[in-house]
Amino acid sequence: MRQKVRRQLGTIFTIIILTLTVAGYSQTVNDAKAKYNEGAQLIKTDIQGALNAFNKCIEICNSLGEEGKETKILAESQIPKLNYTLAKGYFDQKKYNEALEGFTVTFETAEKYNNEQVKTQCKRYLTLLFNNLGNSFYRKNEFEKAMENFNQALKYNPLYAKAYFGKGRVYEKLDDLVKMKEAMDKAIETGLSKNDIKTVENAEKVTRNTFYNKGVKAFEAKNYDEAEGYLKTSIEYGNQSVDTHFQLGKIYNIQKNWNDAIKNVNKAIELETGDDTAKAKLYFELATSYVGSGDTNSACEAYKKAMFGPYAENAKYQIEQVLKCK
């Protein structure tokens, strides 16, 4: 008797469980659709609330399998766009930390749900934000963090000239001139390809000034070969100053490379816009080059043009006592 009752109760419980399961399954489909509709209604007033609803909808649909596929696709299509709107709102409010986090999440969801348009939009903002963060760390002399962020910017846009320029400035501070030059060359290359002329000009300016200053210091330390290399590199990046060619002329005179000395000092004279006194030291150096090369007549002419200001007495001595110019 007891066994019969147990069998009957077991049958009843099985029926109840099956009924609840079927009812629950039917309700879950409705729940998924309800969550989708809830999200759709919140889009204009509560973006985060809409995202929460769509994510919940997707979660429910995942448990349904094929039955929830259509609703799931609809919900998934909303996620990247809403994340982008949320991140863009932070950016417009100048809440850049929140924007960076938001665009990072948006990019990940756009990749996950294959939304190429949102991915492209995210890349633009992520590149800008990481580059700005790199500049911020650079100004604080936190060069390792600056470099990390410039590299992150380039991850999203390998043709972003400003990030290469930022890397170049970091390498300059670290006194790694080889890598600095590589980064600045890349800034110039990508800047030209994207018509970012300002960044190109900045990269050229920093590079030529850095190598010029290095050249002057090397000259003062009597490291003439090193100084020559630095100054020539500075010229490659647009340095056409009087002093650069004058310094090179002096180096070549020291090295007894008379032809290059004459060439560079003449270039310095050509560039000099000052009066005869300003040009006197240049002509005095040029005369030294001509003396070394054995061209006495040209040396005499140069010394005559050097007879101004503090060089007048020495030039006169060379003309009258040493070369005995006519």
Topology:
Layout: H1 2-42, H2 47-64, H3 69-92, H4 96-112, H5 116-139, H6 143-156, H7 161-173, H8 177-193, H9 197-220, H10 224-236, H11 242-254, H12 258-271, H13 276-293, H14 296-305, H15 312-322
Helix pairs in contact: 1-2, 2-3, 3-4, 4-5, 5-6, 5-7, 6-7, 7-8, 7-9, 8-9, 9-10, 10-11, 11-12, 11-13, 12-13, 13-14
Structure description:
By secondary structure, the protein is an all-alpha fold. It has a domain at 29-140: Serine Threonine Protein Phosphatase 5, Tetratricopeptide repeat (Alpha Horseshoe), CATH 1.25.40. It is 83% helix and 0% strand. Helix 9 (197-220) runs antiparallel to helix 10 (224-236) and helix 12 (258-271) runs antiparallel to helix 13 (276-293). Mean pLDDT is 90; it is low at 1-27.
Kindly report the CATH topology of the domain at 29-140: Serine Threonine Protein Phosphatase 5, Tetratricopeptide repeat
Per CATH, the architecture of the domain at 29-140 is Alpha Horseshoe
Order of helices and strands: HHHHHHHHHHHHHHH
The value of Rg in angstroms is: 37 Å
Q: Oligomeric status of the shown chains?
A: single chain
The secondary-structure class comes to mainly alpha
**How many helical elements?**
15
Mean pLDDT: 90
Largest beta-sheet details: none
- In total, the number of strands is 0
Share of β-strand residues? under 5%
Q: Provide the helix percentage.
A: over 70%
What is the end-to-end distance?
A: 146 Å
Shape: rod-shaped
- Poorly predicted runs are 1-27
User: Which CATH first-tier class of the domain at 29-140 would you pick?
Assistant: Mainly Alpha
